[in-house]
Design brief:
Layout (H helix, E strand, L loop, with lengths): L3 H12 L3 H15 L5 E5 L3 E6 L2 E6 L22 E4 L1 H18 L2
Antiparallel strand pairs: 1-2, 2-3, 3-4
């Protein structure tokens, strides 16, 4: 797993406390696990989520910009909070934990 910051930002900015959206993603993961679906692409306001048998990939939509010109030599853009990958099972466990967390918030 890399870029855990992006996963936290994805949960907070895209899923928020939307149980329906979380459960929909769990259903999609189950279909991928059963080989009924090969991949799924979710495009949110701040992040894109790609799911497939290999895992989950979260990419910030801010990385889609084109500066229009090359950056000065030696310049590096900080993208650690914009990209993350993990296994499909790990992402499924994360979603289940997130559902428990947001359910506790409503009590």
């Amino acid at each position: 797993s890399a870029g855990h910051e992006a996963i936290g930002h994805f949960l907070c900015s895209e899923l928020k406390t939307d149980l329906t959206k979380c459960e929909s993603l769990l259903d999609i993961i189950a279909r991928i696990e059963k080989k009924q679906l090969f991949n799924h692409h979710y495009i949110g306001k701040h992040f894109k989520l790609n799911l497939n048998d290999d895992g989950a990939e979260i990419i910030g939509t801010a990385l889609d910009f084109d500066a229009g010109e090359e950056l000065p030599e030696g310049t590096e853009l900080y993208d650690q909070e914009q990209e993350a990958e993990c296994g499909l099972f790990d992402f499924k466990m994360l979603l289940l934990d997130w559902i428990n967390y947001i359910s506790d918030l409503g009590e």
